[in-house]
Amino acid sequence: MKYLVRAFVLGIVGYAVGVGLTMAIRGGGPTDEVAVVIGYIFALMGWLGGIGGIEAFGRQWVGKSVEVSTARGWRRYFQFSVDHKVIGIQYGVTLLSVLLIGGIAAMIMRVELASPGVGIVDLDDFNKIVSMHGILMVAVAVAGIIGAFGNYIIPIQIGAQDMAFPRLNAIGFWLVPPVAIALLMSPLLGAFNAGWTSYAPLSVTNESGQILFNMAIVTFGMSSILGGINIITTVITMRAPGMTWGRLPIFTWAGLATSVLAFAVTQFFAAAVILITMDRVAGTSFFQPDVGSALLYEHIFWFYSHPAVYIMVLPGFGVILEIVTTFSRKPLFAYKAVVASLFAIVGLSVVVWAHHMFTSGMANFLHGPFMIITEAISIPTGVIFLGILGTLWQGRLWFRTPLVIAFGWLFNFTIGGITGIFLADVATDIHLHDTYFVVAHFHYTIVGGSIFALIAAVFYWFPKITGRMYNEKAGSIFGVWLTVFFNLTFIPLFWAGMNGMNRRIGDYPDAFEGANKFASVSALILGASFLLFVGNLLYSALWGPKVGPNPWNARTLEWLIPSPPPEHNFTSQPVVIGSPYAYGVKGSVHAYFPDANEGDDPGDGSAQNQETVLA
Amino acid sequence: MRRSWIPVVILWVAYTVLIVVATAQFTWFPKEWAREAAVVDEAMLLLQYLAAPIMSLVMAVMTWSVIGWRTEGGAHREDGAPVRTNKIVVTTWLIVTSALAIYVVINPGFVGLAEIRGEPSSDYVINLQGQQFSWEVTYPNGATALDELVIPVDARVRYDIISIDVLHSFWVPAFRIKIDALPGITTTAFATAEEEGTFEDDVNLRIQCAELCGAGHANMAMPIRVVSEAEWIEYVEALATDG
């Protein structure tokens, strides 16, 4: 805790220094936007130094040796730990907390929308809550799976002891709390009401909370880029002997594809908000009419933010494919085609951005090409579905919570994909754009495709990470509850959108009251399901029954080591000799430990132990 | 086990029929007040029908997974058949999904694009200016109004749209048309009202701002009144002399 306190102190001191310097040099008040920007930059440096950057990097700059935390127990989670497993849990817990905060914002919105007219929040506050909900949830979807499980699971799946750049990994995580703090502090400066999309020129002229939003985006972007380059390097260079590309587990493939995308495009969102910041504090005119262009912002923004939805959902594909294979005990159907599709999506996703702009007033000749490429992306996505359905086909299915939630995912993401076609098509999009149809669609793809996968991943890897089993009955009840009420919440909103209700409004014509009331009641019941989720996880992490290394009898490397894994993952070097998914092939082995002593090998020795737990 | 494709196919067909029948029974769209609305609704309905077999296939496999492929035995149950891939299935899947994608690009994709975003001739031009948080109409004779938009029935009107502050979006749900209002750039939209009526008849006969523009965004709407051409000419002339 010592380091966390120091980080907060140095952060606050840094902020004061930055603001003070700015005021000393140019005059003005402490809430001037320039002062806030400079203050934030100093605060961020203070924070990173305080949490452990001084020991992990700073000492090196003055010729001393680097010190990294060797704390054990719960303390390491509050420190600058370089252990990828600790960082994975830090990401997981932080982002699940953000998910709950964003969920509370959603509940406030649904209560306000339960009836027309102004209820519990006024119209401008409603816009601010919408914006806050949007950006918090986008952060969870972007970094949830890849931050938590990408960090925790990928190095183990490829047989590595850690990530390629452990200190960079720690910096990547510790950039995240300032993002949450900046966003949640923004109401002190009037919050931001331009939506998570922050279209200019509104985002140039609104209240100063927008500045903190901009800073948060740049910070979060740095975290994504550092995480991306780390996973790319780790997967390329640190695979165990015999872990050829053809034997790489599908979740690792998905994590690699995601990281390539995050590394390539994240800077565009940062660039867009930096230009807004410049327009606000430095007197530039990037988005002013006549001199600059408001459309320019939309192009730069969507150049990141369309690929971003694939950054959200590609790791989801990986999780679901992994779960489906494990619980149907069949090889992953059309593995090569699925891997090729992941990368086809990476490629196509960077050239479809303008399908968000069919009603933006951009040049007419752009509509056709963007429509074609957008429809084309449905082909590789279809192959991923083929992989899932083909693996389920005549499988020997064991319905545990991860599979139950994977089924919810499958249903939701199919609806999300199909309704995407309506929005990719120019004629129908012109009516549906910016309506509740879009709201329902992207909740089906992002909650349905990414958050459901995140939750499925939590249950799937929970026994591995904690060494204890969650409560199965509570887990599957939660899975069904979540899926049913998610659908009851968003299905009526498709109808509302088609019938003339636009998005981001705190008030609406009386004609839409029925659909909204239904959605609001469903949403509150949906929100309540998370009590069961959090309760189950907390209780089971402390008092759940202990499990052996491999409760699912899965084959990838993380299941061949103890639960929870030892500090350096592997006590002896694993050697990979076959596919991780060769279910049904007699005598097939994914990996073994040539140097292990008899007693060390948990592969067979602990099988009885598992039986007792599962019974 | 081996013949489990039979129940899946039956379920697939059953779900498809169910969705198609439900789609045909239900009124999905609000009343069409303009010729352009019919194009959009037709496209949406076509996509809904095309979606039926796709949704049904996934639902059929899911249903039979629960009914027919569920096994007991826990973690140590037997393995399934080691089917790694099937060239015929993958190839067929690719051909069918590509064909579907190409089909929807052509129709309703390009067909609808031509109808909605073509640049047809127009009978009248009405200027609209978006501002936080209202619309200002300028009729061809220079008369202006802030309270309602009055348009002639059976005439194709071109709307020239601009904003004087932030982004807005000109959306008439009853006409199914939408285009953003940008500061400094004029955008256009076309609509041909086909029936006389007012905002009191249908709440969708309104211009609704559809792009988040600030505190008053939700209520940035303007009622529309569709009248006969003669009545409209009379109205705009009276407006010009009064103003």
Order of helices and strands of chain A: HHHHHHHHHHHHHHHHHHEEHH
Number of separate helices of chain A: 20
Number of domains of chain B: 2
| Number of E strands of chain B | 11
Strand ordering within the main sheet of chain A: 1-2
The first-to-last residue Cα distance of chain A is 40 Å
Classification by helices and strands of chain A? mainly alpha
Judging from the principal axes of the Cα atoms, what is the shape of chain B? elongated
CATH architecture call of the largest domain in chain B: Sandwich
Quick one: CATH superfamily of the largest domain in chain B?
Cupredoxins -  blue copper proteins
Under the CATH scheme, which architecture of the largest domain in chain A would be assigned?
Answer: Up-down Bundle
Predict the CATH topology of the largest domain in chain B: Immunoglobulin-like
Q: Summarize the helix and strand pattern of chain B as letters.
A: HHHEEEEEEEEEEEH
Most residues in contact: chain pair:
A-B, 96 and 89 residues
Quick recap:
The complex is a heterodimer of chains A (615) and B (243). Chain A is 67% helix and 1% strand.
Topology readout:
The complex is a heterodimer of chains A (615) and B (243).
Chain A: H1 2-26, H2 33-61, H3 84-113, H4 123-157, H5 166-174, H6 176-185, H7 202-205, H8 209-237, H9 250-281, H10 294-328, H11 335-349, H12 367-376, H13 378-392, H14 401-424, H15 426-432, H16 436-466, H17 472-498, H18 513-543, E1 575-576, E2 591-592, H19 602-605, H20 607-614
Antiparallel strand pairs in A: 1-2
Helix pairs in contact in A: 1-2, 3-4, 3-5, 3-18, 4-8, 4-9, 4-10, 4-16, 5-8, 6-8, 8-9, 9-10, 9-11, 10-11, 10-13, 10-14, 10-16, 11-13, 14-16, 14-17, 16-17, 17-18
Chain B: H1 5-25, H2 35-67, H3 87-117, E1 124-131, E2 134-138, E3 144-145, E4 149-152, E5 156-163, E6 168-172, E7 177-181, E8 187-192, E9 197-198, E10 206-209, E11 221-227, H4 229-242
Parallel strand pairs in B: 1-5, 4-11
Antiparallel strand pairs in B: 1-2, 2-3, 5-8, 6-7, 6-10, 9-11, 10-11
